[in-house]
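Can't paste images in this forum, so I'm doing it all in text. The chain is below; anyone willing to post the predicted structure tokens underneath?
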Amino acid sequence: MCLRGTLLRAPNHRGTRRQRFVPCSSSHWTGRVRTADADLVARCKRGEPSAFEALYRQHSSRLYNLAYRMVGNAADAEDLLQEIFLLAHRKLGSFKGQSALGTWLYRLATNLCLDHLRSKAARTAQATSSIDEESPSGRRYDPAAPAVQPVMSIDLERAIARLPEVPCPPWWSIDYERGRVRFPLP
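Text version of the structure:
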């Protein structure tokens, strides 16, 4: 197992040669992470509270950021973070160790956030469809209808027809274009 790596002289983008460190193998570091993940998962499966607390401390900020980016709401992201860790606690037995623990948790979180967004979209669609349904008066709501409905204009015409006729004295001057009445000055 190579822990150090080697120094190589390789040309950079300017054409000059510089030394850079090239590790021999990345499997050494990945092996350490996977071993730590496997140890943490084994401790969680045994029911050690400190192990799950360590799991939460390691991954909570990353998973919270994911949830917040996906749902766009801090309160929903916090609720989803709790649900993510509850689901992880329940499904920890199905973790096979083929990927890193963080990757598995990230996938659980993504799926949970997508489910949340789908259910939120379904609730929104259901709420808007109830607006489109007929109202209790039997009339259907139409947002494209003009502001003044024909029914209102008929009511206005009836109200005007009920007003008593008041003759205008001949000395009043009515200007219909400007909508005003002029009174002669004495």
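Confidence is low (pLDDT under 50) at residues 25-29. The chain has five helices and four strands.
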